[in-house]
Amino acid sequence: MSESTFMGVERDRIDWSPRIDFTKCNDCMDCVEFCPHQVFEVDENAKPKLKVKNPNNCVVFCRACSKTCGPDAITFPDKPETTKMIKAIRKAEKEAATDE
Amino acid sequence: MSESICVLPCNGLDKCAGDLSRRVALELAQSEEVELICPVLINQNKSRYEKALAAGTLTVIDGCNTRCASKLAGDLELAIKEKVNVSEVAKALDIKLGVEIRDDQDTQAVVRAVLEKINSSAAEQAESEFIEPESIEYNTFSHGKFIFKVPKANYFFNENDCWVTVSGNMARVGVSDYVQQNLSDILYVDPPEIGDEFEQFDDLGSIESSKAVFEIISPVAGTVVAVNTGLNDAPEQVNESPYEKGWLVEVSLSDFEEDQDLLHDCPAYFEFLQRKVAEIDV
Fold it and tell me: What angle do CA B41, B44, B45 make, to 5 degrees?
């Protein structure tokens, strides 16, 4: 069984991962070094070099990498909105289960 | 107010908001249970107030957002139980205070509102003090050379491995045994500020080991009432006693029933953690 759920909701239904503003990013790669979940990838030959390769590896509600970012180039989705969405999905699934 | 309180106000000489904090403090000081702390004197001679501070809880009144009184309490390592900010109360009432010191209807209204806020929260706190349980029983499971502990009852967890345990309207927040073992020796605790309001899943500071920084993701919504100052000198308590002595933040809850929807109780977290540990170590 894969651990790709958060509070019973499939991870890929939760939109939570870093967004990089490349007008601010200075290619320091501190975020890559910081994140232990292999969310980022560096491709030396690409432009930009930094890429959010595994958005669903990102720990839901963790924003720690954005704090290591000097130029403040990393943002995340709105937390209360995300919480609301997760609750809505759980509620819908619970209702669907009781309907069966 | 049954318990005695010490009140540390802003010095009150710089501008209107400060003057109001001074006026609030003088009103409070009419009560016998209240000891007024002069910010200038305590800064010069802390021992003068040692007895009073030991006997009662500390309420800090800040005039403006420079928060001199709070910062002074922080510098002197005083434990703050309650905090009010005159400028914020005025803003909520839609009253502009400005610089000039004045005594009129507007400023009197602010003084009354601040006094009400202090009195009502003192009453609330009396009935909702966090009471530590006598003893906690644990379930354990082992994985390789590691043994993981999870309390048997009365704790709730989010899937970010942070716990909350509730006593009345108050609660304590910390990290699970899994987090402390994963981080190994915790060297530094960066707590949130007392008085901070936060939503469920907002961060409540962080803890740091030589291996990594771990963001404390709050299992509940509320207001920071206290932080575990014992961890300044002994952050290893988070390793030694993650569910008890190593608690991180004390909060007053805003809507625990609502928060619980996205939390695991002890048996559910025990199962969740077993699965997580099994998968990570493949």
Answer: 80
- Please state the pTM of the whole predicted model: 0.67
Between strands B80-85 and B34-36, the pairing is: unpaired
Q: In this complex, do B212 and A36 lie within 8 Å of one another by their Cβ atoms?
A: yes
Is there a domain that residue A2 lies in?
no
Decide if A7 and B203 are in contact by the 8 Å CB cutoff. Answer: no
Q: Is the peptide bond before A48 cis (omega within 30 degrees of 0)?
A: yes
B37–chain A nearest CA distance, Å:
38
For chain A, the distance separating the N- and C-terminal CA atoms, rounded to the nearest angstrom, is 24
Asked if the Cβ–Cβ distance from B217 to A62 is below 8 Å, we say: yes
Q: How many domains does chain A have?
A: 1
Is the residue at B132 inside a domain? no
ipTM of the complex: 0.84
Query: Same structural domain for residues B38 and B88?
Result: yes
How close does chain A come to B131, measured CA to CA in Å?
29
pLDDT tens-digit readout, B205-237: 999 998 888 999 999 999 999 999 999 999 999
CA nearest to B27, candidates B84, B87, B72? B84
**Are B245 and B142 in the same domain?**
yes
A87: in domain: yes
Q: Are residue B243 and residue B199 in the same domain, yes or no?
A: yes
Q: Domain span at residue B103? A: 5-127
- Report yes or no on A32 lying in a domain: yes
Shortest Cα–Cα distance, A81 to chain B (Å): 11
Is A6 in CB contact (< 8 Å) with chain B? yes
